[in-house]
Structures are given as C-alpha cells and as structure tokens.
Design goal:
With about 400 residues, the chain is an alpha/beta fold. It has 15 helices and 14 strands. Helix 2 packs parallel to helix 3 (about 95-105), helix 3 crosses helix 5 and helix 8 crosses helix 13 (about 335-345).
Length: about 400
C-alpha cells in the first residue's frame, strides 16, 4: 500500500460498529492504517493491525489492557512513515495521550473522538471523589491532550458542553452522532420478519429492550412495568441482552406471560430482532447525562421503533427524542411513569405510527452512515491544514 494519509486507533470495534464503517468509507478513497482488535489483514488501501486482546474480567485486567494497548499502538504508529492525521476514539480513555505523543514526537495532527467523558464517569458513579489524586491528574491529562488536538468530536450537545472546559476554547469541539447503517437496519413488516414470526409477535405491540443489562440500567422498573401490564394481551415485552442483570431479569420475569427474555442475538439476526420492536426502551442512568449517550438509540431509530427513553430530562437522549419527535422520555426508577408513557403511545395508534415514521426519517436525514461519515471526513481534511493546538 502507498504511504497512509490517516491512522485510525480504537481498542475494540465490534461488528457493525461505527468505527469499522468509518475506516471502510474513508479508506475507500485514501490509504489508511487501523489499530484495533480486528484481525490483522490488508483490504484494498487499508492495513489492519490487531492490538493486544481486551481482558474484561476485572477492573485491574481492564486497566492492564488499556495500558498494553496504549503502548502497543504508540510503538507501532511511531514506526509508520510520513505525517498522517491520527484519528483516535478514546476507548480506552487514555488514548488521548497517544495523539499528544504523536504530535510531539512526529509532528502529526490528531483528532479525538470522545463518546464517554472520563474521568467524569468515575466521579458521577461515585467510584472516585472529585478531589482524589487520580481524578485531578486525569483532568490535567485531558486538558493537555485535548488542547493539543486539531479537533475534538463528541456525540451530543450536553457532552459537548462537558468537554469544552477541557479545551478552554483553544480547539473546536464538534458534535457528530454515532450512526447506524440504515441499509442493514431498517423497518420490516412483522409478517415478513422471520424473528417476529418465530416469537409470536406479528399480532402484538412489541416493547423491546435490546442491549447490555448492566448494574446501572433500570431493569427493575422495566420488569415491574411488564408485570403491571399483564392484563393487556396486545402488549408483549421482549428483553434481549446480557450483562450483570441478565439472570435476574430472566428469573424475575419467568412467571410473566407477556415477557420473553433472550440472550444477545447473532449479527445476522440483530436487524430482524430490532425491527420487531414497535417501541424501543433505552436506559441512561441518572447522573451520566452529559458524559454518555446510548449508541443503540440510533439502531432502534433505523428500525423504525418509537423510543421510550428512561433518562433525566436534561440529557442528550431526552433532547434527541424531543427534537426528532420520535417518542417520549421518563425519569429513571419510576415504574408508573413507564406504564403511563407506554399506554399513551399504544392507545393512540396514529401518534405511535407518526413517532415511528419520524424515527426512520431522523436516521435517513441526520444519523445515517453517509451523513455522519461525511461530517468526519470534513473534520479530518480540516485537521490536515491546521497547526495542531491552534484554533481552526
């Protein structure tokens, strides 16, 4: 391959992930090198180099994996010839240091994509105090590395406001949502959807939860809402996922005839399972607004599902739902609010139908792969001509 124009770095990139799609689309026109957990290979103008495996078994193993990936990717990227622009998704969050060192050692401009704001995540979840040495040092690292970037990207207006104090106005901070491939995930009539047919959903209003069931997700309120709606034969809950609460969800709902609990579905089934949901439940834990945004929201929009956001009113998720008029949101830990919101949508079929149309329209016009990749491409092209650390 010819000398690369770009280097892309992110530790993990699951199938159908925006990072994979970005690399594919950008590299269709320009040579690039990608460092991630994808298997090493060369595809057209792109060289993929696999980094160390990510060990999720404990907090310490995660930290070790972060550090190993940081130093491995730093060593390998410094060996690359030329002055490519470095695009870094800050997963792990220490990867902003990679960009800073690339700039200082090799004079390369770098762009940071921040989809979870660390160390704010640790503070908001009560895992570290604001005054702890780790948090203070981490904030200093953020200020140094963010202010030396050519551009910083984050995924929502609330997150943008959280990140801006780190840059102090020295670097542009743009909002680019994580996107979904709207060709692979799209609405499917239930009668023609093999997944919906197999699970008896063709004559039901399906309320779908699809994704991680972590300790901070409000699964208890969802299960209790299902319990409150057992008298409605037309409503069925499908809870699909994995994580710390999965077994609790399965055991707690085992006596409910209106609930189906399934593990995460294979990649080829995923678009079918998403398209089964008339209403998609999306959780954002209290206190995390402004530093995280559930990326699965966009996949549910692409499938034409109305969104019931279980989140704070002042959050990127609630703002998206309101702007797109594609659903409604309720505060976490409020079972009755979930029940009332679901019934308000389900018992007004024309309103639910409009929300579902608006969801798909929002993806096609604002959150599609084509629209968002074009935004990133423009930022990368601007970064090439900007003196690093100076305003665009």
């Amino acid at each position: 391959m010819r000398r690369p124009r770009y280097i892309f770095v992110k530790q993990t990139a699951p199938a159908h992930h925006f990072f994979r799609e970005l690399c594919e689309d950008i590299a269709a026109d320009d040579a690039a090198i990608v460092f991630s957990d994808m298997e090493s290979h060369q595809s057209r103008q792109t060289l993929y180099i696999k980094g160390p495996d990510y060990d999720r078994t404990s907090a310490w193993s995660r930290a070790r994996s972060w550090i190993r990936f940081l130093f491995s990717s730093l060593y390998r990227t410094l060996k690359v010839e030329g002055r490519p622009t470095v695009f870094i998704v800050t997963q792990p969050p220490l990867l902003s240091l990679l960009g800073y060192l690339q700039h200082k050692i090799r004079g390369r401009p770098y762009v940071l994509w921040i989809d979870d704001v660390w160390p704010d995540v640790l503070v908001r979840r009560g895992l570290r105090s604001e005054g702890s040495l780790v948090i203070r040092l981490w904030r200093v690292l953020n200020r140094i590395t963010y202010r030396s970037a050519a551009h910083v990207i984050t995924i929502g207006p609330y997150m943008q406001r959280t990140v801006q104090p780190y840059t102090r106005g020295d670097v542009p901070v743009s909002v680019v949502p994580t996107w979904v491939d709207s060709d692979s995930v799209r609405p499917i009539v239930k009668a023609k959807n093999a997944f919906a047919v197999r699970h008896g959903q063709t004559e039901k209003i399906t309320v779908l939860y699809s994704g991680n069931m972590g300790v901070t997700h409000d699964m208890k309120s969802i299960v209790e809402a299902a319990r409150s709606l057992t008298y409605r034969d037309d409503i069925h809950f499908m809870l699909i996922g994995g994580g710390a609460q999965f077994e609790w969800v399965r055991s707690s709902s085992s006596d409910l005839p209106n609930v189906t609990v399934l593990p995460l579905q294979p990649a080829d089934i995923f678009p079918l399972s998403l398209a089964t949901g008339d209403i998609a439940l999306v959780c954002l834990e209290r206190g995390i607004e402004g530093i995280s945004m559930p990326s699965k929201t966009y996949a549910s929009l692409a499938a034409g599902s109305a969104i019931l956001g279980i989140c704070a009113r002042e959050s990127d998720l609630a703002e998206l739902i309101g702007d797109c008029e594609c659903g409604t949101s309720v505060e976490p830990q409020n079972t009755q609010a979930i029940v009332d919101a679901l019934l308000a949508m389900i018992d007004a079929p024309e309103v639910l139908a409009r929300m579902r149309r608006n969801a798909r329209t929002a993806v096609e016009t604002r959150f599609s792969r084509a629209v968002c990749v074009a935004m990133v491409r423009e930022i990368l092209e601007q970064a090439e001509g900007v003196a690093v650390g100076q305003p665009a």
